[in-house]
Amino acid sequence: MRILVVGNEGQLARSLKALSPPPGVEIAAVGRPALDLLDPSTIKIAFDAAQPDLVVNAAAYTAVDKAESEPDAAFAVNGAGAEALAQQCAMRSLPFIHVSTDYVFDGSKSSPYRETDPVSPLGAYGRSKLEGERRVAAACPQHIILRTAWVFSPYGQNFVKTMLRLAASRPEIAVVDDQIGNPTYAPHLAAAILEVAQGIARRDSVSWGLYHAVGSGEVTWCGLAREVFALSERLGGPKADVRAITTAEYPTPARRPANSRLDCTRLRDAFGVELPAWREGVEDCVRELLTVRQPEPLNRSGP
Ligand SMILES: NC(=O)c1ccc[n+]([C@@H]2O[C@H](COP(=O)([O-])OP(=O)(O)OC[C@H]3O[C@@H](n4cnc5c(N)ncnc54)[C@H](OP(=O)(O)O)[C@@H]3O)[C@@H](O)[C@H]2O)c1
After folding, report:
1. CB–CB of 283/224 below 8 Å?
2. Is the N or the C terminus of the chain less surrounded, counting Cβ atoms within 10 Å?
3. Distance of alpha carbon 169 from its chain centroid, rounded?
């Protein structure tokens, strides 16, 4: 099975490329400029060149706050761009795994969200991703949409890297403690996607549709920051005191859901896939950042 990953340098794309696939599975990735979601002709050329058996979309417009001031850019990539990929998959009868977000919800539910819960995004990014879900589902019958959340990894920009970077220059960091979610380690999500892809290849009948896929366990941003520093300190890395604040004390252009938790029962039941605990991911990530990659990524600007 040849898997084509769309996106090259993002957290998920890099995690997919870093997998060691089993014999008989090849993973190739293509991103900008060779494949630009804003230019459908490049999608066709990239598919012709790769001749994939299955396609994973790991590319997206992910600048949540910036999307508030440039919603058209977010919709072009996350809506029309995702649809163009789905159409190309449909034309070739290829299964398509697309990735979406917890930000399709408004966070007002008091328990983890299920796939059947009503959506109501709070911002332009969430609306653009929801548009993508709808367009993908309409364009390509053989689709799996995986909603994930709070993604972190040794790559790119994310909360864990930002915390370590800030701790190098500040004794105390104020972090929001009234948003709860399921931190998801991109390499764990990548491994889950590979399992789903193999499940699709093995099965005669696949339950296409929408699934939630996040790390096991839940925590607030503040709790996550404290865990990062506990691990970092143990490994001889930077540490800061974490002061709990409310969302109201940390205004951002885009509103975020207070409850981002996603229930992943459907994914487990349909594919037997369950992501490891977020804590295991944090441990791997911090270790990798402190021992293997330092100092380059910690000096890069975070989100
Ligand atoms: N990060 C999170 O916390 C989070 C939370 C929930 C859901 N998700 C979803 O998870 C998926 C993976 O996210 P991530 O964290 O890996 O994102 P990321 O690190 O921001 O990477 C996004 C990738 O998309 C590529 N891209 C953007 N516009 C493109 C275009 N026009 N054509 C082709 N490629 C384009 C970027 O390419 P360049 O390298 O060329 O810029 C980048 O490699 C996305 O669908 C995202 O919406 C993420």
Report:
1. no
2. C
3. 28
Tell me the CA–centroid distance for residue 217 and ligand 1, in Å: 24
CATH number listed for the domain at residues 2-299:
3.40.50.720
**Separation between Cα atoms, residue 79 and residue 87, nearest integer Å:** 12
Tens digits of residue pLDDT in 262-291? 999 999 999 999 999 999 999 999 999 998
- pLDDT single digits (tens) 106-135: 999 999 999 999 999 999 999 999 999 999
Q: Where are the domains of the chain?
A: 2-299
The atom of ligand 1 lying closest to the CA of 35 is 33
The whole model's pTM is what?
A: 0.95
Q: Measured between alpha carbons, how far is 106 from 118 in angstroms, rounded to an integer?
A: 9
Beta bridge partner(s), residue 273:
none
The neighbouring-strand residues paired with 99 are: 146
pLDDT at 293: 57
pLDDT at 204: 80
Q: 95: which 2 tokens?
A: 């299964």
Helical spans, DSSP H, in 52-123: 71-75, 82-91
d(CA 7, CA 13): 6
Which residues are near ligand 1 (CB < 6 Å)?
7-13, 31-32, 35-38, 58-62, 77, 81, 99, 101-102, 129, 148-151, 156
Residue partners of 263: CB distance under 8 A and separation at least 6 = 111, 112, 113, 114, 212
Please state, in angstroms and rounded to a whole number, the distance separating the CA atoms of residues 278 and 41: 39
**CA 204 / ligand 1 centre spacing (Å):** 31
The secondary element (H helix, E strand) that includes residue 224 is: helix 221-234
Note every long-range contact of 69-78, with CB atoms under 8 Å and residues 24 or more positions apart, other chains counting. 69/253, 71/124, 71/127, 71/128, 74/124, 74/125, 74/128, 75/124, 75/127, 75/128, 75/131, 76/37, 76/38, 77/37, 77/38, 77/128, 78/125, 78/128, 78/129, 78/131, 78/132
Find how far residue 76's CA is from the centre of its chain.
19
